[in-house]
Structures are given as structure tokens and as C-alpha cells.
Write a structure and sequence with these properties.
- This protein is mostly helical.
- α17 runs parallel beside α19 and α20 runs parallel beside α22.
- The longest helix is centred in the N-terminal third of the chain and has 32 residues.
- It is elongated and about 95 Å long.
């Protein structure tokens, strides 16, 4: 019993040292590589294969698929990566994570680790102490991490040798046995929070005869699925696209795991036969490293035809109100070949976007919070982007001069509305602390009243017969009330009644509101008449 306790203690210590080494190595490699890794992640998504290669490369360098996955979800969350590119980046990261299995199998379990692990730790610590904060220190950190990693593997070997005759691992080949092995791999990864550590434990156990090849392969499959927990946690509370990226990571690992489990006996048999044919001895660790790489490659091959349907399915999930409102309702690729119909569809969509923008302007005028308007602006931005993309595709089709002019007018209207929305957001971000000042409430109320009347006129179901004259009258009244408000603010600032900083912020707010109203009027006039309003 005492030998078992000692072996378990060594096993726990070995896992701990391995994890510390992994952390030091990963941190050191990231620091040594500098911002290049972030540039690779953020800029290498022009094609799916470029994104895939970047995922493989960065994970192989940092030796942490979890870091790459979390960074990818973070980039998607910040809008720096598109969802399609992020998917292939994570698929590549999964394949890059197999590098650790090869390091353990080829180096960690084949050489006298003490002969180079301890000197590596010594040299690494020396570099770290003499180069703190520099690239040399980062390299030393990575080198010491490598040494600790291999030292941890040495302890794992020692523990499993001591435990081999006393503890039996779940090593059957029946369906329930295989399921239990998968669960062991999944739970092990969740506990140690590192698929690399789970892989090292599994390879060491197999190398020392505690697990057969098929049982160890099932544990490896479970460990691969266990890595999805990190992505799921990272996606909690994130943007819809970030949650979709996390779900794509789960889908990849689960699909690859299911297929690998269905083919498990044949895959192990084929790998064993191939190793014998090539003249290699029946090495359990090498066999598992090959299996780990093979089943991740299999997952990538499965995703080639499935990626696009998966992307479309994910885009229908985790939807927000802003995304639903920002989705086009009238734009249809079927009408692109008929320019007149395409222009009419685009006009209807721009008109709907105009309703959203006018609602934002009215909200800014009434004091709606900046957060609420920012959410509404996300819908406007999404719909505006869809309109611009549709217009670009229209421009590739031959059209008559009248249709081309109508397209240009509609695009200018779109720009007016987008500018109005931007000004509404800018106004909402600024505060007005002056409305309680003596004499200011009258001119403030006048501006509010005239601005609301102008919006009411613009939002009417149809322009009146004398719409131009009536609109001009409302616009002039708004401009006059704005002039009175601005003059009062400047006078109070000069007299010291209102602090200059407060006056400046209020002026910027009302200037943004005025600009938003002007752009709304321009857009509505052009949409109704197809001509430019008088600036």
C-alpha cells in the first residue's frame, strides 16, 4: 500500500511539474516571438488554407491550443477576425496541438531525460535571471520550461513503472470499455486543464504497459474533446460571433471524435501494419502520436465539405435583436440581373434603414443612453454593409443610364442616413449639464420642440404637396432654435454662469444633434424626390 501511495504522489508531482513546464515554455515562446504571433493570427485569414496554416504554425510555436483558441475567440469578439477565418484558424490549431505528442513520444520517452533536462533547466534559469524583461529572458523561460516538462515526463514514467503491477487501467475493447476510456480522457483534460498533459500521461501509461493501443487511443480521443471546455468557457458572455466560434471548435472535435471512435479498431490496425511494413518496432507511444495526428487530419478532411454548411448553421444560432434587425429583407440575388428591380429592392432596404436611423436621432434627442444607441447602430452598420455589398454586385451588371443614376442617388441617400446615425451616437456619448441653468431651459425646450417637429414631418407617411416649402420652414425653425441655444450657451460660458468645459461638451452635443437632423433631412428629401436637397 505504501508503494502505491508513493507512486501516486510521484505521479501527481510529475503532472504538476509538467504543467509548470508547459506554462513556462508557452509564455516564454510567446514573449520571444513578440507581436508576430498576434499579427499572424489577426492577418492570416484571407483564405481558409492561410488561416488553417496559421493555426498550425502558432500552436506548434506556443505549444498551447487553448491559448490560440482563446485568442481567436477574443479576436472574433473584438471584430478583428471574421467567423469563417476563425473557424479554420481553430481547425489548424487542433492539428498543431499534436506536436506535443510527438515531442513526448520521440524525445521524452526515448532518451535519458536527466542527462539533458536538468542542464536545460539550469541554462534556462541563468538566461532568465540575467535577461529579465528581454527576449533573452523569454528564451530562458522557454528553455527552463522545456526542461521541467521533460523532468515531469521522467517522474510520470517512474510512477507508472511502480504502479504497473498494482493498478489496472480501463483497457477493454467492448463498447462500454471504450466509452469509459473516452470519459477518462475527457475528465483528465478537464482536471489538469491541458490536453498536452493528458496526452503525456496517456503516452507514458501506454509505453509502460498499463494501457493497450486501442484503450490509449480512446483516452486520447476523450482528451481531445476535453479541450472544448476551455472554448465554451471563453464563449460565455461573449458576442454572438465569438460564441459561434466556440461552438465550431466543439463541433470539430466532436465530429472528429465520433468518426475516430467508429473507425478505431481499423485505424489502430492500419497504423500497426504500416509501422511493421516500414520496419519500425511496435512502439506504443509512436503509435499513439501517429493516431493523434491521423485523427485530427481526418477531422480537417471532414470539415472541408462541412465548413460552409456549419458556418451557415452557426450564423442562424445565438442571434441578437440587432443582428435580426440588421439582416436585409428586400435584397435578393435573383433580381440582380434586372437592374430596375434591383434598384427598387435597394431603395426599399435603404428606406427601412432610414427608419432605424431616424429612430436613433429621436432617441439621441430625448436622451436615450449611449449603450442603447450603440446597439441600434450595430444593426444600422450591418444593414448598411449588406446594402453596399448588394450595390457593388449590381455595378458589375450592365444597366441603363437611368438605373445607374437611381443607384447613385440611393447610395448617396444611404450615406446620409449612415452619417445621421453616427452623429446620433456621438451626441448620446456627450452630456448636457446646463439645462437647469437660469434662462437656458427656454432655448433648450425651443430646440427640442423644433427638432421633434422636423422629425415628425420627415417621418410622415407621404410628403405633402408643398413638401419642399414646408420642410424648408421646419428646417429653418430648427436652425433658428439651434442658433438661440448656441448663443445662450456661449454667453453663459463667457459670463461664468456655466463652466467652460461644461459649455464645450454641451455645444458638441447639440452640434452633433443638429448635424444628425440635417443629414436626416437630406436623406429623406433625396429618397422622396430623387434630387439633392439644398445644403
Amino acid at each position: 500500500m505504501g508503494e502505491i501511495v508513493k507512486a501516486v504522489s510521484i505521479l501527481a508531482g510529475g503532472v504538476g511539474i509538467f504543467l509548470v513546464g508547459m506554462s513556462m515554455m508557452s509564455d516564454g515562446l510567446k514573449l520571444a516571438a513578440g507581436p508576430a504571433l498576434e499579427r499572424i493570427l489577426a492577418g492570416a485569414t484571407r483564405t481558409r488554407w492561410q488561416a488553417f496554416a496559421s493555426g498550425v504554425l502558432v500552436t506548434a510555436i506556443t505549444q498551447s491550443s487553448s491559448v490560440v483558441t482563446i485568442a481567436t475567440i477574443g479576436f472574433v469578439n473584438a471584430g478583428l477576425l471574421k467567423l469563417g477565418g476563425a473557424l479554420w484558424l481553430m481547425f489548424g490549431s487542433n492539428l498543431g496541438s499534436t506536436m506535443m505528442g510527438w515531442i513526448v513520444a520521440v524525445i521524452g520517452l526515448k532518451f535519458n531525460i536527466d542527462a539533458f533536462a536538468l542542464p536545460m533547466i539550469a541554462v534556462g534559469v541563468a538566461l532568465r535571471l540575467t535577461g529579465a524583461g528581454s527576449r533573452r529572458g523569454a528564451i530562458g523561460n522557454a528553455l527552463a520550461g522545456f526542461g521541467l516538462l521533460f523532468f515531469g515526463i521522467s517522474l510520470l514514467q517512474s510512477a507508472f513503472i511502480d504502479m504497473a503491477g498494482a493498478i489496472r487501467m480501463p483497457d477493454g475493447e467492448g463498447p462500454l470499455d471504450v466509452l469509459l476510456q473516452v470519459v477518462v480522457g475527457f475528465v483528465l483534460t478537464c482536471i489538469v486543464q491541458s490536453s498536452a498533459a493528458a496526452m503525456a500521461i496517456t503516452l507514458t501509461a501506454a509505453q509502460n504497459g498499463m494501457l493497450g493501443a486501442q484503450g490509449a487511443a480512446a483516452v486520447v480521443i476523450g482528451a481531445n474533446v476535453g479541450t472544448t471546455v476551455t472554448a465554451v468557457i471563453a464563449g460565455i458572455g461573449a458576442t454572438p460571433n465569438a460564441r459561434r466560434a466556440a461552438m465550431a471548435h466543439v463541433a470539430f472535435n466532436v465530429v472528429a471524435a465520433v468518426v475516430a471512435l467508429l473507425l478505431l479498431p481499423w485505424m489502430i490496425g492500419a497504423i500497426t501494419a504500416a509501422m511493421k511494413w516500414l520496419g519500425y518496432t511496435d512502439d506504443p507511444a509512436i503509435k499513439l502520436a501517429i493516431f493523434h495526428t491521423t485523427f485530427n487530419v481526418l477531422g480537417v478532411l471532414l470539415m472541408i465539405p462541412l465548413a460552409t454548411p456549419l458556418l451557415h448553421w452557426l450564423q442562424r444560432r445565438f442571434r441578437t435583436r440587432e443582428e435580426d434587425e440588421g439582416a436585409p429583407q428586400f435584397l435578393d440575388d435573383n433580381v440582380l440581373q434586372v437592374p430596375q428591380l434591383a434598384v427598387e429592392a435597394l431603395k426599399h432596404e435603404v428606406d427601412r434603414l432610414g427608419d432605424m436611423c431616424r429612430h436613433m436621432v429621436r432617441g439621441a434627442l430625448l436622451g436615450t443612453s449611449a449603450g442603447v444607441l450603440a446597439q441600434e447602430h450595430a444593426s444600422v452598420t450591418r444593414l448598411g454593409g449588406a446594402c453596399q455589398t448588394f450595390a457593388e454586385r449590381m455595378s458589375r451588371v450592365a444597366m441603363e443610364a437611368a438605373a445607374a443614376q437611381a443607384l447613385a442617388d440611393t447610395l448617396r441617400t444611404l450615406r446620409y442616413y449612415e452619417s445621421a446615425a453616427e452623429q446620433a451616437v456621438a451626441a448620446a456619448a456627450l452630456r448636457d449639464q446646463t439645462t437647469t441653468a437660469t434662462g437656458l431651459s427656454d432655448v433648450y425646450n425651443a430646440f427640442q420642440r423644433e427638432a421633434a417637429a422636423l422629425l415628425d414631418h420627415v417621418e410622415g407617411d407621404a410628403m405633402p404637396a408643398d413638401g419642399g416649402q414646408s420642410l424648408t420652414t421646419h428646417a429653418a425653425a430648427m436652425e433658428a432654435s439651434y442658433g438661440g441655444l448656441k448663443a445662450k450657451l456661449l454667453a453663459d460660458g463667457a459670463a461664468g454662469t456655466v463652466r467652460i468645459a461644461v459649455m464645450e461638451e454641451a455645444l458638441r452635443r447639440y452640434s452633433a444633434l443638429r448635424r444628425a437632423l440635417q443629414q436626416t433631412v437630406k436623406a429623406s428629401t433625396r429618397l422622396a424626390r430623387g434630387t439633392d436637397p439644398i445644403d
